[in-house]
Write a structure and sequence with these properties.
- The complex is a heterodimer.
- Among the domains of chain A are: 250 residues, Alkaline Phosphatase, subunit A, CATH 3.40.720; 82 residues.
- Chain A contains 41 helices and 13 strands.
- Chain A is mainly alpha-helical.
- Chain B is mainly alpha-helical.
- The chains are: A mainly alpha, B mainly alpha.
- Chains A and B meet through helix 22, helix 23 and helix 25 of A and helix 3 and helix 9 of B.
- Chain A: Belongs to the PIGG/PIGN/PIGO family. PIGO subfamily.
Chain lengths: 1124, 254
């Protein structure tokens, strides 16, 4: 101990002179960070602005509908007032049906214009339709077939089999598979024993798994391939038709659609394809028997460029051609035929023609001309008459409406009650008519049709229409929120200085405007639409904020005359044209292209790597990387000599370069943990993504397990070592307890859990019960430990150890002793190696100020050393993140432990790069001006968050969500949805959350690394200033809070810009082929990621503020009351 | 002020550009089936070789290459050897960098290496020609005040343009357009070459328009004297000192 004492004393001596800054600012020790509660509130306000924008846009863009998982049964369609007859066993109109779906068969393709002498490639290529409709008008009809948006194949197949209006997000029970769970034609056909044979587009197979009697799917993925699917169908179609083992035959041709995507409709290839289809229809008609109905239809149309997905007439109007060898229609085409057949109407018509119940959630209306009028019902062979069909249909629709409105509240209530009243009236009228045996009035038919139409219109308005106004409002609010973040980050110091006075007015006005709009809506419409109230509030707040900023700016300029204040030039072009911003811009721009979104993992890695490589290059460009040489001019006093020594600079730059190397290496390695999208055909998903329990090879299993456990161990060791290094493991507080005991215990739990879950179920038969119990208990124990740890950190975040030195030793030395010191190590070695006597100057000052009156007390007061004071802010944050990471690792497959180790290394490397760069820059310039974090590390941080989203095996697609996370600790499933949803969310957005929570570390790390710096610097005659590390922040509470505000607003700006780009992509490309496959999922992931990140940023900042409060209290306690 | 140099530089660059052009055209005439996309590697090598030969020849003739004090054959040979070694090391460096940036590690290693050779012949070779095999000087050149003659400024501009061109060239690779120039490494090598050509044009133009403001501080002579002469000592230091002194003399003469 004596050596240490001597060392301590010498350092005490060197730190004797009072640093200069102290003389300028004198504050009371317990001054907390100025405006600290304001900070959290402000961040919350900004986040809520973003959330309002996202909410509005999503409300206008994502069409959401609840799935009703009930099915119709044969008993539902009983006739009123009759004996119970089994509907399904009466003889149907048609025993069999052939459904030919020609993808993207636009109505223009099917129409024939004989006067057109120079047809374009897509015109007049299906003469068969015209020939048949003119020669056999009772047997056939051609209708325009109106599809509802989104006009993409999968949604359309869903539409014309369920009869409902599928939206992008059909909230059903299983989100993972795309199988249709709603009641549909295929299900009903199978239910009464019809044999459904399918051939063609393999989308059907995933939509209706195991529902077909026979299934011949062909790959539909390659849009460039015009023939595989069609030729595959043609090889089987005719032989199947002539055979006798089918009742309903579905053939889905893709050639026309692919031809449209590849060449556009106006291309000779389209003519060939349509001519081929003409031949197909002819041959099918030749082979039809009398009891068979032929339906030829397109699922959607196409634009002039051959795309589809949107809601323009060209995309929605497909062709529907009906034909039967026996007369199908009661008469030739007449005036009262429908001009256009909505796609939903096919379902009830087909159902009643084939003698099956109408699917439960169909909102279609029977195609009236297909049914015999009431007076001809006896003449017609079988099946319901027009009125009966309408009645069955209306009853079914009403039942669906009742069920749906009891589940979801998105249909406006006044409309709903109106529809219900209408049905009640119709029902009584119909029952009266049938009961009296009268022939029905035409008004009844008409009003039933009107009822059905109005139901469909209501549903469509709710589910199938973009709301451009809401989308635009959302975009504007988001854009303003981004801009506001930027302005705030530039103005942070001014704002904090005036205690955020300027921000109160917008908040109050926003509230007032929101309430006003709500009241106005209540008065005019009678109900409140929350979205618009929020929009009005958010917009008014943003505009008022900008106005006040603009006004104060002009006022400042007017006051100061010609010399504008420093912050007025915040929007100069040069400050925006720096490479970090350029990289952030490129990242945002990449979200607008589907190829880049598909390759997002690599794109982000590329950009991150570029920015990392840019850092040393830029330092070298500024001449800071290499030590400046001996300079005769400087040594002669001609130039101000900066206080840096070559060896120190060399050390810093080698640290920097080593960290760059480490970062680049871990980036490269992390590429091998990526998953694969289905669009990336060549790609192989990472082997580490498969859970251990699924590995067959036992040697491989052991290897993987060992790797995972080793990396978990290294991970825990590194974290603990870091904390120990800075002396944060010495005291006995809650946080230290967490670091010492809970952290290792948690990782042990994790390792054991992996071992248990990897055990094959049948290997230890007698231990089966125990393994099951362990599978249940170990993760739950880990969850509890995690919660306990996080709670302890929040309760007692201080990791400072106070060592009271014996007064005797102080007396022995004749030197003036510092009374408080922060050191980093407790063990002798640590003290020798990392002895950083930290003297909290401000506090000492305040003591000194009080001392003259009580001078005699000096010797009596015990000397105090505070270990870990230098990292008082960062240590709890680091620990918090560490615990969170372990918790999230628990939710991932075991192999991801390696990836999480890389994440830790990358985080550390990024922090060190940032710290070294700051130190190098700080040494050059005399005063850097506060603790501002520049753009480059912040952009790198946000890129790294996205990069690790991919490197932990996630992808922005729904099939790639790791659902197994929901069953960690709950192997038998759940009862509710909240727990599994939050587990899966934590799993999916692990890296977003981690990087956002640890964002304030960017502010602390240069100060933490200062320890290293000043020891090197002291050799160069550093005026004896101590390594005060993070205590610097306490000395300048204003700068601290402004830097914290700036950091978090900058981070929010970058995240917000990304989410804004994603939102714009969805808005601009809403007609794009890939919108529902690439952009919409990406938007949802990006938005959710943003919400979680911003909340995590607020959590991180709040934690820092919590530590600040604790530190203030600690100092208060430390200073004896007598000294005041 | 720098009229003589600018003229020399412009003509050098014209020759270089012409050599790139000839390296594309001549094989097309003589080699059957030659095309930039189809036989990309062949084109890459022909361009690299042409640029290498022409740069070495032109810079040697111009005398931009730092003169050596020692005229012994052994010293010259060692310089040549070191230049070759640096050239090869630079190829390896670029190869590693490109792989780290996401190029396939094993599958198309030859293509990646060819790109590295092209990048080396467009950037490192120029450093070798202008500064000699002296890595300290290379690092020094790429700083704000590191240029000590118009040739150094020109070097900064061309190298930056080439590297940025290759970087931008990677952008179209993930796009699903299925064009022949999206195949690895065609877009990158084309980007690098276009960047290089842009640099060839931009460097004399930029220097011409900024010739009034271009001052190469004398302090850097002393800087050099200090850095390399005092700190490093040895051959390198001596050589660098020579370079600095020569530049100084050269500027005085202007």
């Amino acid at each position: 101990m004596s050596v240490i004492d001597v060392l301590l004393l010498t350092h005490t001596f060197t730190s004797g002179p009072r640093p200069r800054e102290d003389k300028q600012t004198k504050k009371h020790p317990e001054t907390r960070m100025k405006g600290s509660p304001v900070l959290s509130l402000l961040l919350l306000c900004i986040c809520s602005l973003y959330f309002v924008g996202l909410y509005l846009f999503m409300g206008g863009f994502l069409l959401v509908r609840l799935e009703v998982n009930r099915t119709s049964t044969c008993g539902d369609v009983l006739q009123p007032g009759q004996e119970p007859v089994d509907f399904c066993h009466t003889r149907p109109r048609f025993r069999r049906a052939v459904l030919i779906i020609i993808d993207a068969l636009k109505i223009d393709f099917a129409q024939f214009d004989s006067s057109n002498l120079a047809p374009r490639p897509y015109e007049n290529k299906l003469p068969v339709v015209e020939e048949i409709t003119s020669s056999r008008p009772l047997h056939s009809r051609l209708y325009p077939f109106h599809a509802d948006p989104p006009t993409t194949t999968m949604q359309r197949i869903k539409g014309f089999t369920t009869g409902s209006l599928p939206t992008f997000v059909d909230v059903g029970n299983n989100f993972a598979s795309s199988a249709i769970l709603e009641d549909n034609l295929i299900h009903q056909l199978g239910q009464i024993g019809k044999r459904v044979v399918f051939m063609g587009d393999d989308t059907w197979e995933s939509l209706f798994p195991k529902k077909f009697y026979r299934c011949l799917p062909f790959p539909s993925f390659n849009v460039k391939d015009l023939h595989t699917v069609d030729n595959g169908i043609l090889q089987n179609l005719y032989s199947t038709m002539t055979g006798n083992d089918w009742d309903v035959l579905v053939a889905h041709f893709l050639g026309v659609d692919h031809c449209g995507h590849r060449f556009g409709p106006d291309h000779p290839a389209m003519a060939d394809k349509l001519t081929q289809m003409d031949g197909v229809i002819r041959s099918v008609i030749d082979r039809l028997q009398n009891d068979t109905l032929l339906v030829v239809m397109g699922d959607h149309g196409m634009t002039d460029t051959g795309d589809h997905g949107g809601e323009s007439l060209k995309e929605t109007d497909a062709a529907l051609f009906l034909y039967s060898p026996v007369p199908l229609f009661p008469g030739p085409p007449s005036q009262d035929e429908p001009d256009i057949v909505p796609q939903t109407d096919l379902v009830p018509s087909l159902a009643l023609l084939l003698g099956i119940p109408i699917p439960y959630s169909s909102v279609g209306q029977v195609l009236l001309p297909l049914f015999p009028p009431h007076d001809q019902a006896e003449v017609a062979p079988t099946g319901p008459s027009q009125l009966e069909a309408l009645w069955i249909n209306a009853k079914q629709v009403n039942r669906f409406l009742e069920t749906y409105s009891s589940m979801a509240k998105d249909i406006p209530p006044p409309r709903l009650s109106q529809l219900k009243a209408e049905f009640a009236r119709l029902s009584s009228e119909y029952l009266a008519t049938v009961g009296a045996g009268r022939s029905p009035s035409p008004q009844l038919t008409a009003s039933m049709q009107a009822y059905l139409t109005s139901v469909r219109e209501t549903c469509r308005a709710t589910w199938a229409r973009f709301n451009p106004l809401k989308m635009a409002a959302g975009l504007v609010i988001l854009a303003f929120a981004c801009l506001m973040c930027y302005v705030l980050s530039e103005l942070s110091f001014v704002l904090i200085r005036e205690n955020a006075r300027r921000l109160k007015a917008p908040a109050v006005v926003a509230l007032a405007v929101g309430v006003c709009v709500a009241v106005g809506q209540l008065l005019t419409h009678g109900y409140i639409e929350v979205a618009w109230c929020l929009a009005a509030a958010a917009l008014s707040a943003e505009l008022l904020f900008f106005w006040s900023v603009y006004r104060t700016r002009t006022v400042h300029v007017a006051k100061n005359g010609s010399k504008p204040p420093k912050w007025t030039n915040w929007l100069t072009r040069r400050r925006l044209l720096i490479p970090p911003i350029l990289v952030a811009f490129l990242r945002c721009a990449s979200l607008l292209s589907d190829s880049y979104v598909i390759a997002e993992g690599r794109v982000v890695t590329f950009l991150l790597l570029s920015l990392v490589v840019y850092t040393p290059v830029h330092l070298n460009w500024d001449g800071l990387l290499l030590p400046p040489s001996y300079d005769p001019l400087k040594s002669a006093g001609l130039l101000p000599s900066p206080a840096l020594s070559p060896s120190f600079v060399r050390k810093e730059s080698s640290t920097l370069l080593a960290c760059v190397g480490l970062l680049v290496g871990s980036l490269y390695l992390s590429l091998s943990f990526h998953g694969c999208r289905e669009e990336q055909g060549y790609c192989q998903p990472s082997p580490f993504l498969t859970p251990l329990s699924r590995l067959q090879d036992s040697q491989m299993k052991n290897l993987h397990y060992a790797l995972s456990v080793v990396s978990l161990g290294v991970w825990t060791y590194l974290l603990r070592h870091c904390l120990r290094h800075y002396g944060n493991l010495n005291s006995s507080g809650g946080a230290v307890f967490t670091a010492r005991w809970i952290l290792p215990l948690l990782s042990t739990c994790l390792g054991l859990h992996w071992a248990v879950s990897a055990t094959p179920e049948d290997s230890f038969r007698n231990l089966g019960e125990m393994i099951k119990l362990a599978q249940l208990l170990l993760p739950r124990a880990a969850f509890c430990l995690l919660a306990l740890g996080l709670f302890l950190i929040c309760l007692d975040p201080l990791t400072v150890f106070i060592k009271t030195r014996a007064t005797a030793s102080a007396r022995n030395s004749s030197l003036p002793l510092p009374r408080y010191r922060a050191s980093t190590g407790i063990s002798p070695q640590a003290e020798l190696h990392h002895l950083i006597p930290q003297i909290y100057q401000r506090m000492r000052r305040s003591l000194d100020d009080n001392e003259p009156s009580v001078g005699s007390e000096v010797d009596n007061r015990p000397a105090v050393e505070a270990y870990g004071l230098g990292t008082v802010y960062s240590a709890p944050l680091l620990l918090f993140c560490g615990l969170l990471t372990l918790g999230m690792l628990l939710l991932h497959p075991e192999g991801m432990a390696l990836s999480f180790l890389l994440l830790l290394l990358e985080m550390g490397a990024l922090l060190h790069i940032h710290a070294s760069a700051t130190t190098l820059r700080g040494l050059q310039s005399t005063y850097s001006g506060g603790f501002n974090v520049p753009w480059a590390p912040i952009v790198m941080w946000s890129l790294a968050a996205t990069q690790f989203f991919h490197a932990t095996g996630h992808l922005p697609t729904f099939p790639s969500i790791q659902w197994s996370a929901a069953f960690v600790g709950f192997p038998d499933g759940h009862t509710g949805t909240a727990v599994p949803a939050s587990l899966v969310t934590l799993n999916t957005f692990a890296s977003h959350i981690l990087f956002a929570v640890s964002c304030p570390l960017l502010l602390f790390w240069p100060l933490v690394c200062e320890a290293r710096g000043s020891r090197g610097g002291r050799a160069a005659g550093d005026e004896g200033e101590d390594a005060v590390m993070e205590m610097r922040l306490r000395e300048n509470p204003q700068q601290f809070s402004s830097a914290l505000l700036q950091l978090s607003t900058r981070y929010l700006f970058i995240l917000g810009a990304q989410v804004f780009a994603s939102v714009s992509a969805a808005a601009i490309l809403r007609r794009h082929l890939m919108v529902w496959k690439v952009f919409a999922p990406k938007l949802i992931f990006e938005a959710l990621g943003f919400v979680l990140s911003s909340v995590s940023v607020v959590i991180g900042v709040t934690l820092v503020l919590r530590v600040d409060v604790a530190v203030a209290r600690w100092f208060k306690r430390l200073i004896p009351d007598s000294s005041r | 002020m720098w009229d003589h140099e600018i003229r020399a530089m412009a003509s050098t660059h014209a020759i270089l550009a012409a050599s790139v052009f000839m390296a594309t055209v001549l094989p097309a005439v003589f080699v059957p089936g030659f095309s930039v996309y189809g036989t990309h590697l062949l084109w890459l090598y022909s361009v690299s070789a042409a640029v290498t030969v022409v740069s070495v020849a032109v810079f040697w003739l111009l005398g931009v290459t730092p003169p050596t004090k020692k005229h012994t054959l052994g010293y010259k040979l060692s310089r040549l050897f070191r230049s070759c070694l640096y050239f090869f090391l630079s190829c390896l460096f670029f190869h590693t960098l490109v792989v780290l940036y996401g190029a396939p590690l094993i599958e198309s290693a030859l293509e990646t290496f060819s790109l590295a050779v092209l990048l080396t012949s467009l950037t490192t070779l120029r450093c070798l020609c202008v500064l000699g095999p002296n890595i300290q000087a290379w690092i020094r050149v790429f700083s704000r005040h590191g240029a000590m003659s118009v040739w150094d400024t020109c070097l900064q501009i061309t190298v930056a343009c080439t590297v940025v061109g290759a970087w931008v060239g990677a952008f179209p690779i993930p796009l699903d357009w299925d064009r022949p120039w999206q195949v690895w490494p065609v877009s990158c090598s084309l980007g690098a070459l276009f960047g290089f050509l842009t640099g060839l044009i931009a460097a004399p133009a930029w220097i011409h328009y900024h010739r009034k403001h271009l001052t190469y501080k004398l302090t850097f002579i002393s800087y050099l004297l200090g850095t390399f002469g005092v700190q490093l000592g040895g051959k390198d230091g001596f050589e660098a000192t020579q370079t600095g002194r020569d530049c100084f003399v050269h500027m005085k003469a202007e």
